[in-house]
Specification:
21% of the residues lie in helices and 31% in strands. By secondary structure, the protein is an alpha/beta fold. The chain has three domains: 91 residues, Translation factors (Elongation Factor Tu (Ef-tu), domain 3); 142 residues, Nucleotide-binding domain of ferredoxin-NADP reductase (FNR) module (Rossmann fold); 82 residues, Ubiquitin-like (UB roll) (Roll). The strands form three sheets. Strands 4-3-7-1-2-6-5 form a seven-stranded antiparallel β-sheet. The structure holds FE2/S2 (inorganic) cluster (FES).
Amino acid sequence: MRLLNGPLQTVIDTLLPESVFDFWLEELGALHRKRRVMARVVERFPETPEMITLVLQPNGHFQGFQPGQHVDVTVEIEGRKLTRSYSPSRPVSDEGLIQISVKRVRGGAVSPFLCSQVQVGDLLELSQAYGDMQLPTPHDFQKRPLLFLAGGSGITPLSALFFELAKRAQRDTIPTTTLMVWAPTDTDFAFRDELETIARSIPDLRVAFITTRQALATPLDSGLEHSDPLNSGRATLEQIAHRMPNWEQASVYACGPAEFVGHLASLTKGKVQAFTAEAFTLPTLSADDGHASITLDKRGKTVTVSRGETLLDSLEHSGETLESGCRRGICLTCACQQVSGVSENIITGERQQDAGMTIRPCISRPLADVTLHI
Ligand code: FES
């Protein structure tokens, strides 16, 4: 609801301090703010027993997003502001509505609140969108097939990309794309009916669902027994090759828990054309991996840190402050140049040793002494 328009709005915007301006608009239940992105919940519906979708109408400050990107959602719970990152699960609608799908994390603070407490009409604060897990440009569409690998609620950025491809297929050529989803049981697959409907009508888009704990009740691939390892269990190259024989020519996008993404990164290492990964948890690092020296060249400081921590955590523990945001390697807020040394991307296991390369300290740990341009 926009309460004021035109010159009067501009005068009030200019004269009132932001805190006063926002306070009164909040009291009035308005969506507008001086600068902040707010969004009203206009619809909510379940995707699985543990996941709901919130349909959001953002105010005019929101600059939009590309499918595959993330937004931070901030809520106030018992007087405390808490922020979590979610990836819109479908492309923006023609009316400018965005959808986030939230899986309830047992013992979590924000996801149970969003799943159970937030109702139609409530307001949430959003960040601008960020993240670089995006489709290749149309110019590059013909070069390689795409392989999307999703673990559990890691489906959300990949479903947005898949739905976007389905939209583009109405008017353009799209790359052949296979989306594979792993989840514990049949009831944990979000968007399954929609995705299968798309796969039945668009030959270039394929989907497969694999349960990790319980055999599929209704396997997509006819001829496979429920207990067939191609149809259930931890991700394997055989499962992938069965759905996509030319997987080695693919650009791979993987998203899920750290263990899932790390496992797929090591399975496909050096065998696929490109591997883009995001994890919504970080792997546990061993505290017994010794120490390394980190030199911050602009600050003229050297600190000794544990190799069993991320560079961001260990520098913070040493009293150094670094700008950070998502702490999961997505927003690039912490990105900096590694002048020399060797570090490791803890999500993909990739060694980072090219002088001058940009690394993300929140998902990197030192393998040897490192100099950062900080
Ligand atoms: S990439 Fe977001 S804080 Fe490091």
